[in-house]
Amino acid sequence: xxxxxxxxxxxxxxxxxxxxxxxxxxxxxxxxxxxxxxxxxxxxxxxxxxxxxxxxxxxxxxxxxxxxxxxxxxxxxxxxxxxxxxxxxxxxxxxxxxxxxxxxxxxxxxxxxxxxxxxxxxxxxxxxxxxxxxxxxxxxxxxxxxxxxxxxxxxxxxxxxxxxxxxxxxxxxxxxxxxxxxxxxxxxxxxxxxxxxxxxxxxxxxxxxxxxxxxxxxxxxxxxxxxxxxxxxxxxxxxxxxxxxxxxxxxxxxxxxxxxxxxxxxxxxx
Length: 270
Known about the structure:
- This protein has three helices and eight strands; from the N terminus they run H-H-E-E-E-H-E-E-E-E-E.
- The protein is α+β, with helices and mostly antiparallel strands.
- The chain has two domains: 2-55; 89-264, Porin (Beta Barrel).
- Mean pLDDT is 77; it is low at 14-25 and 199-203.
- Strand 2 and strand 3 form a beta hairpin.
- It has helices at residues 2-45, 49-55, 136-143; strands at residues 89-98, 104-116, 121-134, 152-173, 177-196, 210-222, 227-241, 248-264.
C-alpha cells in the first residue's frame, strides 16, 4: 500500500507542478493586460505637445499679441483712462482770482475752448475778464498820498495754449469712490489789457495791450465721460509802459481758476 501511494505521487506530481506554473503564468498575463490598459488610458488622457500648447493659449511676446487673448466675462476691466479726450472738444467755464497782487483784488470769469489731438496733447483758446478792486491797504495809502508798486492790474486776457498731459491716475474718495484724474501742464502766449489802478497818483501807464507769456498747470477730475471738475493755476508775464518817462516795467500775475469742463462729441471708442 505504501509503495502504491508513492507511485501515484510520482505519476501525478509533474502534472500538479505544471498546473501551478500554468496558473502563475495566466495570472501574470492577466495582470500585464491590465497594466497595458492603464498605460493606454494615461497616454490618451495626457495631451500631446501641440494640443497642450494650444490649450495654454497664444503666447504674448509684444503688445500686439494682447489682442489675441480671450476676455473673462466675470472680470471687470479698468480702462486706461476713464475720460477719453482724443478727437474731442472741451469747454471750460470757471471763476478765477489773482493770488499775488498785494494791492488789488481781482476776481473774474475764465472761458476756454480746446481740442485734443491725442490723450497727451491738445490746444486751447483762452479768454479772461477780471474785475479789480483796491485792497484796504491800497485805499489807506492812497488817502495818505502814498504811491504804491501795484499800479497795473489785468483787465482782460486773450490767448492760446498748448496742453501736455503726461500723468494720469485715480483718487480714492474716503474709500467710497474712485475718481480718475489727469495732471496737465500748459504754455502759451496772448495779449493782456492792463487796467490803471486808482493808486497811481503820480504815475500812469498806457492801457495798450501788452504781449503776455504764460505757463500753467492743473488737474481734471472725471465725473462722467463728458463732464469733469477742473482747477488751473496760471502765471502771466507782461510789460507795461509808463506814459511819463516811457519806461517799461515787468509785471506778473498768478491766477487760480476753478470750474467745470464739458467734453463733446460723445466718446464711442472707449
